[in-house]
């Protein structure tokens, strides 16, 4: 029988394996028999070696437990900042705005501010600017994002959520399409037991502004805040018949 290599041509020469660069234990400095791919103990000093990816360079690193914890903190901080700057980008905020606000707060605090303080400061700047306009739809989105941020930070957020719904009602009242009533929209099957009975209820806008049935104070949908539920109910316009 002819060999397959003769049927399909000469087999490509096998590429020589790259020689593995020796890796030393980050504790004792001894050369490890094999590069660790996950958490393990050094066979020499028995200290725990960790494997991490540098969040800046994306390079795999062999570290001590202490260094691994520091990398984890840095990675979470980078992800946090990226996530909220991405949210703020919807309102025109850039990395440059973030750094400028950080520098400003640094002078005020006489120390480096937390990223959370910078984000909150930018949100408040946006709110001050937006309140000078009559764009209630934009204000609704801004108040809602501020409520999300405050909830994640463990701050009081219910008043922000109320303002978001108030702006929503004002938006529909002034939309110019004759809307005088709204219907409550809940989060479907994912709505909490306290919010489910609100589904489909119709209110005159003037009554909804007075009673503020949503956000529901008794909502039990908890994300980060341990005590206050984050009500996701919103309003739909009841379009008048022509």
What does this structure look like?
By secondary structure, the protein is α+β, with helices and mostly antiparallel strands. The protein has a domain at 23-75. It is built from 7 helices and 6 strands. Strands 1-2-3 form a 3-stranded antiparallel β-sheet, with helices on one face. Strands 5-4-6 form a 3-stranded antiparallel β-sheet. It is elongated, with a radius of gyration of 28 Å. The protein starts with a helix and ends with a strand.
Task: Label this structure with key terms.
alpha+beta, 3-stranded antiparallel sheet, 242 residues, 6 strands, 7 helices
**Helix/strand order:** HEEEHHHHHEEHE
- Give the neighbour order of strands across the main sheet: 1-2-3
Oligomer: single chain
Beta strand %: 5-15%
Distance between the termini: 85 Å
Query: Which range best describes the helical content: under 10%, 10-25%, 25-40%, 40-55%, 55-70% or over 70%?
Result: 40-55%
Tell me the structural class: alpha+beta
Q: Main beta sheet: strand number and arrangement? A: 3 strands, antiparallel
Number of E-type strands: 6
Given the C-alpha coordinates, what overall shape results? elongated
> Radius of gyration over alpha carbons?
28 Å
Q: If you average the pLDDT, what whole number results?
A: 92
Count of helical stretches = 7
Low-confidence segments, given as residue ranges, are: 1-8
């Amino acid at each position: 029988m002819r060999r397959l290599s003769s049927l399909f041509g000469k087999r490509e020469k096998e590429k020589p394996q790259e020689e593995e660069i020796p890796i030393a234990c980050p504790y004792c400095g001894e050369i490890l028999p094999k590069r660790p791919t996950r958490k393990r103990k050094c066979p020499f000093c028995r200290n725990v070696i960790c494997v991490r990816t540098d969040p800046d360079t994306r390079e795999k690193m062999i570290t001590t437990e202490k260094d691994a914890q520091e990398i984890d903190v840095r990675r979470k901080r980078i992800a946090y900042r990226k996530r909220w700057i991405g949210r703020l980008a919807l309102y025109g905020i850039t990395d440059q705005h973030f750094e400028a606000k950080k520098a400003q707060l640094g002078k005020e605090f006489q120390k480096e501010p937390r990223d959370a303080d910078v984000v909150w400061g930018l949100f408040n700047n946006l709110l001050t600017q937006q309140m000078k306009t009559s764009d209630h739809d934009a204000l609704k989105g801004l108040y809602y994002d501020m409520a999300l941020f405050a909830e994640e930070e463990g701050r009081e957020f219910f008043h922000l959520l109320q303002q978001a719904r108030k702006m929503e009602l004002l938006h529909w009242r002034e939309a110019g399409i004759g809307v005088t009533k709204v219907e409550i929209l809940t989060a479907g099957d994912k709505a909490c037991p306290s919010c489910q009975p609100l589904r489909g209820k119709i209110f005159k806008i003037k009554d909804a502004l007075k009673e503020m049935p949503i956000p529901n104070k008794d909502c039990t949908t908890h994300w980060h805040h341990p005590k206050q539920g984050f009500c996701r109910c919103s309003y739909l316009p009841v379009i008048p018949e022509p």
